[in-house]
Amino acid sequence: MNERVLLVEDDPELGAAVVARLRSAGFVPTWWREGRYIEEEDARPFALVILDLMLPGVEGIKILRELRARSEVPVLILSARNDTRDKVLALRLGADDYMTKPFWPEELIERVRARLRRPVLQRGDVIELGALHLDLSRPEVRVDGRPVTLTRAELAFLTVLARRPGQAVTRASLAERVLDPERDATPRALDVHASRLRRKLGASVTIETVWGIGYRLKRDE
Predict the structure, then answer these.
(1) CA–CA dist 1, 24 (Å, integer)
(2) Ranges for all domains in the chain classified under CATH 3.40.50.2300
């Protein structure tokens, strides 16, 4: 396995226990004992981040918000906060899962494994998600077998969402990957691309607006 996991947790006893459990399950953990922003180069080596919300330094929600603007690494929230509003906010900001303390260590490991399973079929440059077939090597987009012609920006928009189906991607992250500063100078440019993309893809592929956050590609259960 040898997949690297970043744990951000200030409780020394709990952190040590989680690190030991991750190691015994075959993961390679790195432990940060205080809150600080996770830069893109920091996130790149890790397959998953386990993030507490109540941290000294930078609080977890701020870390999550900033992380989603620059990285798509899966994030599992591990927090004593069990209020529904905290859970909804974290998930809307792009967290992939939310566990409350106290917890069973066996459940944590299984949730980590679940988050690391590929949510879509990806073979190299090919992504298949429901009616959507996306081949980035050509590039080629098909919906229900029907070829769809997209602009460069529309293809980039769809690709970012398709790599994280069901998860909200922030406007900042999309803008960085999709927009051309010389052509897309207006604040509404991202929304224009989203509208055109929806029209071209049709009803079989749903791009949802997540108010105050950005967009997500609906994942059929």
Answers:
(1) 11
(2) 4-116
Exposure on the CB side of residue 19, measured as CA atoms within 13 A: 16
**Which CATH code, of 3.90.1170.50, 3.40.640.10, 3.40.50.2300, 3.30.720.120, is assigned to 4-116?**
3.40.50.2300
Please give the distance of CA 182 from its chain centroid, rounded to a whole number. Answer: 28
Per DSSP, which regions of 46-125 are E strands?
A: 48-51, 75-79, 97-100, 121-123
Q: Is 121-217 assigned to CATH 3.30.40.10?
A: no
Per the DSSP assignment, residues forming a β-bridge with 50 are 7, 76
Chain centroid offset of residue 63 CA: 13
Residue type for 46, please? F
> Diameter of the chain by CA atoms?
55
Q: For the chain of 221 residues, list the mean pLDDT of each consecutive stretch of 10.
A: 88 93 94 92 89 93 86 87 84 84 87 73 69 85 92 90 85 82 76 94 92 84 50
Classify the phi-psi angles of 212: left when phi > 0, otherwise alpha if psi is within -120 to 50, otherwise beta. Answer: left
DSSP letter for 25, please. T
**Which residue's structure tokens are 């690190």?**
19
User: Residues 162, 164, 170, 173: is their CA dihedral positive or negative?
Assistant: negative
Q: What is the pLDDT of residue 67?
A: 87
Residues recorded for the chain? 221
Considering the entire predicted model, what is its pTM?
A: 0.61
